[in-house]
């Protein structure tokens, strides 16, 4: 016998592992794709989808041009003139870890604003690399108050502060983000902002707000694919990264090494070329739409959805001041099983929305292509019908007509 066992031998010898029975992907995927209206991933445009199916060399002229364009367009989307924008081959969490791991090391004092699941993840990451973490935990449903945070900044002698712009898990918005990051700069504290679900759905002016690191994933506000993320370091923080003396425990996430690919066009690791091409297309669509118009579209759609939900007789989870528009949290009527509502929506109406992390709510996303009138009508109808068939007393026609009223006014924007 040669180096490889012949197939008949593989099939008859019990000591070898046999190939599993064939199951084509077509038999796994639903016949009709679900409309993704949950907390992400979100639907991608045809341009993004076809870019994601292309593989090119990760080094060389063509890729250099793509990288240059991604960084240029990202400067617009992050609203920064900083040159230090890097891609990350990994989920939003990898970008979070890159931010933390490059700025936190044993003995560094970190103030973590904790509004929920994802902001707590930043705190856990900081603890894991040896940071001395102080948690500022807000009551459920509340954004951070800038005056309260300033008090902590004055008392605490912190090196770094972390916070999310939008806490996708419970749909809380830190509406005082800009004040907080500017206070942090005044007090000599570096700020890390998680904009995974919010970037390009609402304003985030990195330079003007003096944010030091902004991170985002692909699969939410940017409407690209999951697994390739972006991180922007300010010019202000960059010298700290470059001159760091503390040992760097990560190799892939070392910003100084990532620089070799993203700024110097050399080799760090083999970049996820298809995902970067998809990101290129997603960023291009944001640039073509323009941020102002995109923010307005998201706002109009999200508010129309919120008004329609209330017109149906349901309650929104978070009070208006701290309510996130990018993901809308809806309280379930008592006695209604959320899991059953979600499965009716998926099975019967082919629309998928999200449950939650232990809260009695469901969440409807308003990121990227989710914020389109036709997707809203279909989703609200599917949601209302599924609630009714699972025992809820709601007024679906009132919700639908409220949605129509709100969206009609801005038809050209939301189509
Ligand atoms: C606000 C926020 N931060 C971080 C993440 C983590 O992103 P990923 O799941 O891509 O690691 C998410 C994902 O839902 C998020 O919504």
Report what the structure shows:
- The chain is α/β, with parallel strands linked by helices and 415 residues long.
- The protein has 2 domains: 244 residues, Aspartate Aminotransferase, domain 2 (3-Layer(aba) Sandwich); 124 residues, Aspartate Aminotransferase, domain 1, CATH 3.90.1150.
- 41% of the residues lie in helices and 13% in strands.
- The protein is built from 15 helices and 13 strands.
- The strands form 4 sheets. The chain has a 7-stranded mixed sheet, sandwiched between helices. The protein has a two-stranded parallel sheet with strand order 1-12.
- Helix 4 packs across helix 5.
- The longest helix has 21 residues.
- The protein is globular.
- It starts with 6 loop residues before the first helix and ends with a helix.
- The model has no long low-confidence stretch (mean pLDDT 95).
- The structure holds pyridoxal-5'-phosphate.
- Pyridoxal-5'-phosphate (PLP) binds next to helix 4.
Give a quick set of tags describing it.
two-stranded parallel ribbon, 13% strand, 415 residues, 15 helices, 13 strands, binds pyridoxal-5'-phosphate, Aspartate Aminotransferase, domain 1, 2 domains
């Amino acid at each position: 016998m040669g180096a490889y066992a012949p197939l008949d031998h593989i099939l008859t010898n019990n000591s070898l592992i046999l190939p599993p029975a064939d199951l084509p992907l077509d038999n796994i995927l639903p016949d009709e794709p679900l409309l993704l209206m949950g907390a992400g991933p979100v639907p991608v445009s045809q341009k993004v989808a076809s870019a994601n199916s292309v593989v090119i060399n990760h080094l060389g002229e063509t890729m250099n041009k793509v990288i240059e364009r991604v960084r240029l367009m990202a400067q617009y989307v992050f609203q920064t003139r900083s040159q230090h924008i890097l891609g990350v081959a990994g989920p939003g969490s990898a970008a979070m870890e890159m931010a933390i791991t490059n700025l936190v090391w044993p003995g560094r004092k970190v103030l973590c604003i904790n509004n929920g699941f994802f902001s707590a993840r930043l705190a856990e990451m900081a603890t894991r690399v040896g940071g001395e973490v102080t948690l500022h935990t807000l009551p459920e449903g509340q954004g951070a108050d800038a005056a309260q945070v300033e008090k902590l900044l004055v008392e605490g002698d912190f090196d770094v502060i972390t916070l999310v712009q939008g806490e996708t898990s419970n749909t809380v918005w830190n509406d005082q983000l800009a004040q907080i990051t500017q206070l942090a700069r005044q007090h000599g504290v570096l700020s890390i902002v998680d904009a995974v679900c919010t970037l390009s759905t609402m304003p985030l002016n990195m330079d003007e707000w003096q944010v030091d690191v902004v991170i985002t994933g692909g699969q939410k506000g940017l409407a690209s694919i999951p697994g390739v993320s972006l991180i922007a370091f300010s010019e202000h923080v960059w010298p700290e990264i470059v001159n760091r003396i503390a040992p760097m425990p990560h190799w892939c996430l070392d910003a100084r090494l990532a620089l070799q690919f993203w700024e110097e066009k050399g080799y760090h690791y083999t970049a996820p070329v298809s995902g970067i091409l998809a990101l290129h297309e997603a960023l291009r669509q944001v640039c073509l739409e323009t941020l102002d118009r995109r923010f307005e579209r998201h706002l109009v759609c999200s508010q129309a959805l919120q008004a329609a939900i209330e017109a149906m007789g349901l309650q929104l989870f978070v009070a208006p001041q701290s309510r996130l528009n990018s993901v809308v949290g809806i309280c379930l009527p008592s006695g209604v099983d959320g899991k059953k509502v979600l499965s009716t929506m998926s099975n019967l109406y082919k629309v998928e929305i999200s449950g939650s992390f232990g809260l009695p709510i469901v969440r409807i996303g308003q990121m990227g292509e989710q914020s389109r009138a036709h997707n809203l009508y279909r989703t609200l109808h599917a949601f209302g019908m599924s609630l009714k068939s699972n025992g809820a007393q709601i007024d679906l026609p009132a919700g639908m007509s409220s949605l129509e009223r709100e969206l009609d006014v801005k038809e050209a924007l939301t189509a």
